[in-house]
Amino acid sequence: MSRLAIKICGLSTPDTVGAAVRAGAAHLGFVHFPKSPRHVEAEHIRALAAPVPSHVGRVAVVVDPADETVAALAATGSLTALQLHGKETPERAAALRARFGIPVWKAISVKTGTDIAAAKAYAGAVDLLLFDAKTPDGAALPGGMGLRFDWNLLRGVAVPAPWGLSGGLSIDNVAEAVAITRAPLVDISSGVESGPGIKDVDKIIAFCKAAEPS
Ligand SMILES: O=C(O)c1ccccc1N[C@@H]1O[C@H](COP(=O)(O)O)[C@@H](O)[C@H]1O
Could you tell me the distance, in angstroms and rounded to a whole number, from the CA of residue 188 to the centre of ligand 1? Predict the structure, then answer.
């Protein structure tokens, strides 16, 4: 069985980037969405990503971005993937991938099994599907709120693309989440924070240990 991939998302400081790399994260996430307490500008992403070893992915998280927004992020030359976390259609996701030549991850907001089945429409259009909990109507953010969905919805499901699990993961529940879903990748943001947008080095280390014990 291949190693579980871990993505630590919402990083905004050099020390927490370094901690995530040393703890064994396969991907680092940088949120580019002004409403988020984790928002970082494109130039800040460039600086944060500069010392990151090339084997560690650098993912920009965006929400229904305009082409100009993606162009500015792509121009940093720092990204290994673009995570679309809004209401982007398969056609829009495919168009961004084709125009900017960056692999695209699509977050799928999940409340029911129907949401998981609907992800099929993105197969072939994106490089990875990320199942995340649906946030309530009118919520300030479409992710990063520490909400989880019923992981049993993914039990035994043959997902038609590379995929990952996010939403409400924590040091205490990640092993159970992986045991139920068999997710090949886990993604966490608020569960390794001491306050909104404040990443905690000790929690990052503990999460990586809990996700991949031994
Ligand atoms: O973290 C944010 O602020 C954010 C803003 C806009 C879209 C997505 C965001 N975060 C993503 O949400 C999931 C789950 O986060 P959590 O672990 O439940 O806090 C994760 O993929 C983040 O990348």
Answer: 7
Per-residue pLDDT tens over the stretch 23-49? 999 999 999 999 999 999 999 999 999
Both tokens of 21, joined, read 């790399």
How many distinct structural domains can be found in the chain?
1
ipTM of the complex: 0.97
Tell me, yes or no, if 9 is annotated catalytic. yes
For the whole prediction, is pTM greater than 0.95? yes
Expressed in angstroms and rounded, the spacing between residue 36 Cα and the centre of ligand 1 is: 9
The pair of three-digit structure tokens given for residue 156, joined into one six-digit string: 């035994």
| CB atoms inside a 10 Å sphere around CB 90 | 16
What is the domain-level CATH number for residue 112? 3.20.20.70
Decide if 50 contacts 72 (C-beta within 8 A): no
Sequence-distant (6+) residues with CB within 8 A of 179 are none
